[in-house]
Give the backbone structure.
Amino acid sequence: MVTTIMKGTNEENLARLANDESFARLDAADPWVIDVKPAGEVIPGFHSRLVLTSGAPMPWSEYTGGQREALIGGALFEGLAADRAGAIAGFESGDIELGGCHDYAAVGSLAGIYTASMPVFVVQNRTHGNLGFCNFYEGKEPRRLNYGCYDEGVHERLLHVNTVLAPVVGEAIRRLGGIALKPLIAKALRMGDEVHSRNAAASILFGREILPSTLDMVQEDFPGVRETMLHLAENDYFFLRLSMAAAKASADAMHVQGSSLVSAMAFSCRGFAIKVAGLEGWFEGPPPLHEGKLFAGHSEEEITWMGGESPITETIGLGGFAQACALSLQNYQGGSAAAMIDRNTEMYQIVHGENGSYKISLFDFRGTPTGIDIFKVLDTGILPVMDVGLAGRDGGQIGAGVIRAPRECFELAAAAWTKKYGG
């Protein structure tokens, strides 16, 4: 639901004041990770035969390629079907329910598969009281469920998350009474992260936060502590799921009647879509525009789209909107430091303001550009930039790069805003 903040004003004032309020709510958000529990236990409305995926929701018949394979894999992992044919039949009949992550206050990396037994980070926005969720990083093996792969190795790694990693991390967080994520992210930006495609510093900082709890747990012979801490130490992307959940809990507080600020960006195998804080529903366009760097042995022809909601980080002023914090990404996703700085600078032209907490040291600690305005995107012709991993048509990650949201999404959103509010 959206909150009405004013009545009886003209359209120009409505947009300005609504955007001021929407931005203020986003900037004031205070996300804390407070727990780790199975999705079926903590996400409102989740049930045992529900599988979530990324992007604007679609009928089962429209899911293709790696995203379809990931959904089938999720159903098999959860034991909702005995085999591939049974999973397909279950989705076709509705016996296995298909849902969109954002409809459940959740966000999914790439294909974004959630099933009831999968553990999720529970993040509370302590300023506004709402929750955001994101599931666990599977590990650095390129073949992962969220990249459209499901085999025995993927199955075992998912079980390992459920039975070893998540119980330890959840217990450590609970013993601390939760962990404030905003100051941790702000510090990680100063240490070379943008907390989308680079999370090395944030992952280390999170490990340091839970260290006191885990040391106590070792003394109590709590199972799996050493293994979990080694997993954190070896996986620079562990924190991505926390930054996504923090971003979701922050962005969901933006909803204000009349706002033209973007509150979510996501894509599916069909295309890209955005949500707007003052409107209902998704506004869809074609797949995003991309440029990047492929891993050895792969080619441009292999790149495919199978979903992704990690651009929720860019929605709140992180990721591609903080690229100048993470110049080392050029070695991972291609390009140059100069290009990254130019892209980051360009983003200030399409946002409502500068973030009060997330700062870019290279820009003399200027706040990151935050609060994408659909009308500024259209007026300037500048499309939002995002840092992403690139998926291959045969499953798995094959590279990394930057994408731009398609203009069509903003044109549709602007038309809807104008129809609803006039002017």
In short: The longest strand covers residues 351-360. The longest helix spans residues 152-176. The radius of gyration is 20 Å. Confidence is low (pLDDT under 50) at residues 1-9.
